[in-house]
Amino acid sequence: MRANETLRKLLASFVAKNGFEWPEKTTIEQPKDESFGDLATNLAMMLTTQAGKPPREVAADIQDFIKGQVSEITKIEIAGPGFLNVFFNADFWQQTVLDVLGDGDNYGNLKIGKRKRVQVEYVSANPTGPLHIGHGRGAALGDSLTRILRAADFNVQTEYYLNDAGRQMRILGNSVWFRIQEILGREVETPEDLYKGEYIKEIAEALLDAEGVDWFNSAPLDEILAMCQEVAMEEILEGIKLDLAEFNVEHEVWFSESSLLESGAVDLTFERLREAELAYDKDGAFWFKSTDFGDDKDRVLRKSDGSLTYLASDIAYHDNKFDRGFELLVDIWGADHHGYVPRMKAAVQALGKEKESLQVLLVQLVNLLRDGEQVAMSTRAGEFETLADVVAEVGADAARFMFLSRKSDSQLDFDLELVKQKSMDNPVYYVQYAHARIQSVMRKATERGIDAVSVDTGLLAALDTPEDKRLLKIMEQFPDAVASSARTLSPHHVSYYLMELAGSLHSYYHSNQILGAENQNQMRARMLLLDAVAQILRNGLALLGVSAPESM
RNA sequence: GCGCCAGUAGCUCAGUUGGAUAGAGCAUCGGCCUUCUAAGCCGACGGCCGGGGGUUCGAAUCCUCCCUGGCGCACCA
Questions:
Q1: Which nucleotide lies at the shortest CA–C1' distance from A442?
Q2: Domains and CATH numbers, chain A
Q3: Angstrom distance, A286 CA to B73 C1'
Q4: Distance A25 CA to B48 C1' (A)
Q5: A344 three-class SS
Q6: What is the ipTM of this complex?
Q7: Confidence band (pLDDT; 50, 70, 90) for A384?
Q8: Measured in angstroms, what separates residue A507's CA from nucleotide B34's C1'?
Q9: Closest CA to A544 of A491, A488, A470, A498
Q10: What is the DSSP letter of A301?
Q11: SS3 assignment for A225-286
C-alpha cells in the first residue's frame, strides 16, 4: 500500500505536468517475477494515445522524470512492451515493521469508506426452522464483510429481516397444531404444506405441557392457531439467535416485516409509486411497473384477492432503509433468489435511488458432504444438517474460514470430514498455526530471559536478506488486500492473503533461526519482524471472525 | 424456450477495472526433525483456462455463437 502510494504520487505528477489525464486502467502492482522489480506499472502503455508516441518512449520519459526524485527508489527499468519496473531500497521495506507495530490492531485499516453509511442485511431466514449450513455461509459472509467495511472506514449497521407475516407463518402454526392433535390422539387429515422436522414436535410437546390439554379442547381454533404460530416463532427465533451467537455472528437490528404492514408503510409506498405513475391497477390487482427499469415483466404488489405479495413489503422495507439514511444497501441472498434481483433493483430506482445503491450478494447453496457422500437437505422434510450441528462438529473457525475462502457466488462443496481434518485441505489451521508458532517463539524468548524488544529503527537494518525482503513485501500488501475485499465486497481476498502470508512465514521460519540468529541485533530485528507478522495475522483473522490462537 | 451463475492441473479453488512465462493447496513421487511447534519446509510431476470465431500491441479476462452443469423464469415465499 505504501509503496503503491509512493509511486502513484510520482506518476500522477508526471501525468499532470504533461497535461495528460490519468488513465483509469493504470495498474501498479507487485509483479510475480522478482526480476520485474518491486513494483511494476503499465502507465506508459496506457498513455501512448495521449502522448502520441510508442510506449517504450513514454516509459523513457517517465523514467527520466522520476529518476532521483525520491531516495527510496533506487532503480527504474523499462521492460517488455513498455512496463516500468521500479525498485525500492531495503530501508523502505524495513519501514513496514514500524508501520505495523505502530498501528497495532489498526494496521490495515483504511480511509476509503469516508464514513459512508452502509447497511448489511443478511441471513434473514424465515423463522420456520433452524438455520442450515447454507445460512451459515451467508452469515459468515455478512459478518466478515461488515468487519472489513468497518475497517475500511464505512459506517455499517447490520440487520436481520424477519419475515414474521404471511403464509409461511400460518403454515408454521398449522404444523405445530397438527402435531399437538396427533399427540392428543385425534384423527386429523394431514395438511398439504407442513413443516415436518423434529423441532416442530418438540415445540408442540412443550406448548401442550405449558397450556394444558383443557385449553386446547376449549379455546377457539383461531386463538389456538395464533398461539401455535406465536410460540413456534419465538422458540425458533430464540434458536436462530443462539446458533448465530455460536457462530460468532450478531445482528444489531432485527427488523419485523409485520411492523411494516401495521405502520401503514406499505400503503404509503404504494401511494408514492402510484403518484409517480410507476404502479397501476389491472385485472383486480395492483401492479408495479418494473419494466420501466429493465425488468422482464411488471410485477403484482397486491393480488386480486386483496393480499400482498412478498415484493410489496420488500419495496416498503427498502424504502424504509433509505429513509433511515443508508447510502448503500448490501443484501445477502441465497442464489435461488437471483431471479428476484432485477425487480428489486427496479424498485430501488422507482424509489428514486441509483440502482448501484443496492448491492445484492448471492450466496450459492452449499453442497454438504460427508466423506464425499451428499447429505440431503430440505427444510420441509426436516432432513438437514443444521448449522448448529456443523459448528459443533467442526468448530466455528474452520467452518467460517472454509466459507470465506471461496467466492460467495460459486458453488461450494463442504465436506464435514475434510473440514475436521487438520491438514492443508483445511487452510484455517495453516494460518492459525503461523500465529501460534510466532507466539511460541516469543514465549521461548521470555523463558530464555530475552527482554521484549522495543521498536527501534536502527535495528531493522539487520533485516537485509532476500527472505526478509520477500516477507516484508507481502506484509506491506495487507492493506491492499483489505481494500480489495472492501471494494469488491468479497472477504475471500483477505483469506487468500492470509494463506500467502502464513506460507511466507512458515518458509521464513524454516530457513531462519530467530532466537539463534547470528548476533543480537539480528535476533532482535527478527523478533520485531515476527511480532509484526503476528499482528497482521491477528488483524486479518479478526476480519474473518476467526480466532488467532496463542498455541496449538 | 428465456434469464442468471459457473466450466482454469487428477481433485478443491484463486486469478473483478485486458498485461510479461496462467497460480495455490490437496493428491502422486523424492528429500528435510539432536536446533525456536513436522498442523511445518524444499523439490519434481502436472494445463487446448469447456469449444469455435472475433476485437488489439497483448485475452482465462471483452464481444459473438455453440456445448455442459447448477439455479431461476407465479396474482409462491
A1: B36
A2: 2-88 (3.30.1360.70), 94-112+424-544 (1.10.730.10), 167-246 (no CATH)
A3: 21
A4: 30
A5: helix
A6: 0.93
A7: low
A8: 22
A9: A491
A10: E
A11: HHHHHHHHHHHHHHHHHHHHHHCCCCCCEEEEHHHHHHHCHHHHHHHHHHHCCCEEEECCEE
Å between A423 CA and B45 C1'? 22
Q: Which nucleotides of B are covered by protein (CB under 7 A)?
A: 3-7, 12-27, 35-42, 57, 70-77
Nucleotide nearest to A504 (CA to C1'): B41
Nearest nucleotide, C1' to the C-alpha of A415?
A: B12
Q: What is the pLDDT of residues A187-245, one digit of tens each?
A: 888 877 888 888 999 999 999 999 999 999 999 999 999 999 999 999 999 999 999 99
Q: Cα A46 from chain centroid?
A: 33
Per-range mean pLDDT, top range of A64-73, A151-160, A327-336, A409-418 = A151-160
Each residue of A83-117: pLDDT tens digit? 999 999 999 999 999 999 999 999 999 999 999 99
* Residue found under cell 473457525: A397
Residue A421 burial (CB count, 10 A): 14
